UniProtKB/TrEMBL annotation:
Originating species: Oleoguttula mirabilis
Gene Ontology molecular-function annotations: FMN binding; oxidoreductase activity
Protein's recorded name: NADH:flavin oxidoreductase/NADH oxidase N-terminal domain-containing protein
Matching SUPFAM superfamilies: FMN-linked oxidoreductases (SSF51395)
Keywords of this entry: Flavoprotein, FMN, Oxidoreductase
Domain of life: Eukaryota
Domain NADH:flavin oxidoreductase/NADH oxidase N-terminal per the UniProt entry, residue ranges: 16-380
């Protein structure tokens, strides 16, 4: 039987190359979002090539238009979770730089460009995540502790885990600029196509951009213009040291929706996008939203098969899947000369194509689906064997969310669903497939057993080492 003709307007839209101002051509519009892999190991947290070879090879062969790595910390004292990759003072030297070069070549092996996301968690660095003395406080533009949950137990746990940050001195701000510049040099030397600055989700740069965490009255705070000063300084410094063809992107929050209008509001967020779009130094802006403190980053939202099983174009020409559509519509009105990447909530091919065709954005970020189905661009979204109306990335629904509701501490409950994605990235790192049907309780159980097993192995090997030291034959004179 002759194959049926298919209406593939949506795949045509997504499978269109885009040339950035730096000269880099993205082969299509699907971007693998930055997602921290939690696979690097102490003491130096260099790129763990044994596991990254499996994980990044999957993404490299998946036919994305661009791969953005998980966030890489620029300051080894402050990680956002244990297992973050870090750029440290020796990363430019052998043998450390070799791991960076291997990572770049693995990620780019399929012909897809790859940029490294650079980050600093600021006040979001838990105790134990980072090589720092136990009593060293985290840093923030102003001394504003994270608030998560109202019970005394929540407050106690937060105090133990994150504590009260110290307001940064001007010298510390200068030091952060130097750390980001050093990190950009490492990414460039390693052979990556560029870098992306993480200015979203409540991390340090976003702490400077938000009036909630930035109450400074010096050159770095007090007005919307001054709250942007650190980001502007970084963009200018990095661009002047690395002109095109190095690609420079920035990830921003659309807003952080704090109570009583204290946080970053949409108008200020739009001005931040406007500056980045018109400064002539940035190649793309990724728009996301929220932060861990208010649970609006989109990771707590999901679309299941029920709601999205069919998204036929002819029935709804404005599908609007993205979590941050309203902000993107306002950004659209400013006719940004640089491409906007919209991340959060996309699942259907038609929904993604609609966002581009209506001018909402030029690039589509895929996060959780890149973990659950790492090769979904090649296998589903850009697969011309699948009709537009039938092409969906996998549901983001995580089983066993009831456990989060049972947790007495909000700080624990709200971080459980992200553990599911970390766990699946670690599976991919081991060369296994993701297990999208695994429930949160099972993830927690397996991770606990793994930690115990690793702890036991370390302890046993220490005992054995000490035995061999004590039994070493005495030298006979
Ligand atoms: C496990 C996990 C880790 C993430 N790590 C990062 C990160 O390192 N940097 C970042 O900017 N966003 C990070 N994000 C957010 C994603 O980049 C993306 O904005 C978010 O998942 C929304 O897209 P989605 O609805 O397609 O998942 C992470 C998300 C997940 C699920």
């Amino acid at each position: 039987m002759a194959p049926q003709p298919r209406e593939l307007a949506s795949v045509d839209t997504l499978d269109t190359p885009l040339k950035l101002a730096c000269g880099l051509t993205l082969p299509n519009r699907l971007i693998k979002c930055p997602m921290q892999e939690t696979l690097a190991k102490a003491p130096t947290y260099d790129p763990p090539i044994d596991t990254f070879a499996n994980l990044y090879t999957k993404w490299a062969r998946a036919n994305y238009g661009l791969i953005i790595t998980g966030q890489v910390q620029v300051d080894i004292r402050f990680l956002s979770v244990l297992g973050d990759v870090v750029i440290h003072e020796h990363s430019l030297e052998a043998p450390y730089i070799d791991a960076w070069k291997r990572w770049a070549s693995i990620s780019k092996a399929g012909g897809t460009p790859c940029v490294v996301q650079l980050a600093h968690p600021g006040r979001m660095s838990p105790t134990g995540a980072g090589v720092r003395p136990a009593d060293m406080p985290t840093m923030c533009p102003s001394s504003i502790p994270v608030k998560l949950g109202d019970t005394w137990l929540d407050k106690l746990a937060l105090d133990k885990v994150l504590g009260t940050p110290r307001a940064m001195t001007l010298e510390e701000i200068d030091n952060v600029v130097e750390l980001f510049k050093h990190a950009a040099r490492v990414a460039h030397t390693a052979g990556f196509d560029g870098i992306q600055l993480h200015g979203a989700h409540g991390f340090l740069l976003s702490q400077f951009l938000s009036p909630h965490t930035n109450r400074r009255t010096d050159d770095y705070g007090g007005t919307p213009e001054k709250r942007m000063a650190l980001l502007k300084r970084l963009v200018t410094a990095i661009r002047s040291e690395h002109p095109a063809p190095l690609c420079l992107g920035v990830k921003l929050n659309s807003a952080d929706y704090m109570d009583a209008g204290q946080g970053l509001q949409q108008d200020e967020g739009l001005e931040q996008v406007r500056w980045l779009a018109t400064c002539g130094m940035v190649d793309f802006v990724e728009v996301s939203g929220g932060n861990a403190e208010n649970k609006t980053s989109g990771l707590h939202q999901s679309f299941g098969r029920k709601t999205l099983d069919r998204a036929p174009k002819e029935e709804s020409t404005r599908i609007r899947e993205s979590f941050f559509t309203e902000f993107a519509e306002k950004a659209q009105a400013m006719q940004s000369p640089v491409p906007i990447q919209l991340s959060g909530g996309f699942r259907s091919r038609n929904g993604m194509a609609d966002a581009i065709e209506s001018g909402l954005c030029q690039l589509i970020g895929l996060g959780r689906s890149a973990v659950l189905e790492p090769e979904s661009p090649r296998e589903i979204i850009l697969n011309r064997e699948i009709a537009d109306d039938d092409a969906f990335a996998r549901s983001h629904i995580v089983r066993g969310q009831w456990l989060a509701k049972l947790m007495p501490l909000q700080i624990l409950g709200s971080s459980l669903s992200i553990q599911f994605f970390y766990h699946n990235m670690r599976r991919l790192g081991k060369g296994l497939a993701s297990d999208p049907d695994m429930s949160i309780p099972k993830v927690i159980l397996m991770d606990t057993l793994e930690t115990l097993r690793a702890g036991l192995t370390t302890t046993l090997s220490r005992i054995l080492q000490s035995l061999s030291v004590y039994r070493r034959p005495q030298k006979i004179e």
